[in-house]
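Hi R.,

Here's the input for the nicotinamide-adenine-dinucleotide complex you asked about:
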Amino acid sequence: MIAVQGAFDVLKSTQIVIEQALRKLGYGDDMIDLLKEPLRMMTVRIPVRMDNGGTKVFTGFRAQHNDAVGPTKGGVRFHPDVNADEVKALSIWMSLKCGIADLPYGGGKGGIICDPRGMSFPELERLSRGYVRAISQLVGPTKDIPAPDVMTNSQIMAWMLDEYSRIREFDSPGFITGKPLVLGGSRGRETATARGVAVMIHEALRTRGIPLHDARIIIQGFGNAGSFLAKFMHEAGASVIGISDVHGALYNEDGLDIEHLLDRRDSFGAVTNLYSGSISNEELLERPCDVLVPAAIQNQLTADNAPRVQAGIVVEAANGPTTLEATRILTERDVLIIPDVLASSGGVIVSYFEWVQNNQGYYWSESEVEHKLQDMMIRGFRQVYELHQSRAVDMRLAAYMVGVRRLAEAVRYRGWV
Ligand code: NAD
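And here is the predicted structure with nicotinamide-adenine-dinucleotide in place:
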């Protein structure tokens, strides 16, 4: 489970970089004005019958950043701290991820203010179905396609799919992604984000001339993204020397026993509490390593600790782990940053594959999914890295420029601006 923090800052800093990217691409105030906010933002109230017989009314959101390129796409998070500004920022990031990967989508995002850890299965089902009823006019396989996000999973996607299909009176698997395999999910979806991050680590190491077998990797966060990534990097022969969770961190410069840690972690990605001798998350981020992967929460690398980070490469699996000031400091120190909108796009890429398979009614093997994912991630990396070099801009600005340029072009062709 991840905490959601600093939502206002996240939206503001996203808007700052979007503006810089559009200006570098030669666009003016009108385009910036359009793309710095979602086209549509819906707030819904969802009455849910609770197990005690009473009714509780929940608040939910759905943001659609821009649909000039195609339908909007993005996850729905269930979290007590989710709010409108955060959902807006996340929808913009989804546009950027889709732009970098060249997916025929714009960005979308949804959220419900709730704490699923304190709710029963039947209550969660009624809430999920109520949300779909509330937003059903706005979403659909050719309009806006939801997916899982923080504290939502394939079971919740299944309830949402079922509710949507009932409303529309036909089966509509392309309405939502991240579904169970038997309802039209894609092979490789669960591990997609970690697979994509692993591809980015390979590319970054290659760029810096470090052989994979010599690479020492630290991963903050041992949930869905962090734990699968630790597994993949360990299996590939790299040395995972640090991991962490909400309770603390484990570090061993000779490498950790990743298989053992994977065996013992709980379903919320916690394991360090089982061990004595753990260090703090703050300390872990400053330990020597070749690759540092923030894979937990926002705002972890800041102006305060960036001067002490010893990694040569930072790969952002988490959304928004590095502040703009820390980006500047790390870039000046020649740390290669692979920004979140590039590094963590594996999930939306395989969600796109799921939607394509649903539309075709023809399903791919896991290795087919992995190869296609790898190709798209590498293509994205090369575009961003080349622009970073040719325009002498930092990697985050380069990623935003690649992410937004196709969208701005589509807006122009449509004559909106
Ligand atoms: P998760 O809930 O499965 O795991 C989160 C991990 O972070 C857990 O190990 C938790 O203990 C740890 N954590 C929580 N608070 C912490 C803190 N204060 N300090 C250190 N560790 C803390 O989440 P996830 O799905 O692995 O997502 C992790 C990050 O990756 C998030 O920023 C998410 O937005 C991003 N991301 C995930 C996916 C995905 O497909 N899972 C896709 C794109 C981006």
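One thing worth noting: The pocket of nicotinamide-adenine-dinucleotide is lined by residues 1-3, 193, 220-226, 244-246, 269-270, 281, 295-297, 317-319, 344, 347 (CB under 6 Å).

Cheers,
M.
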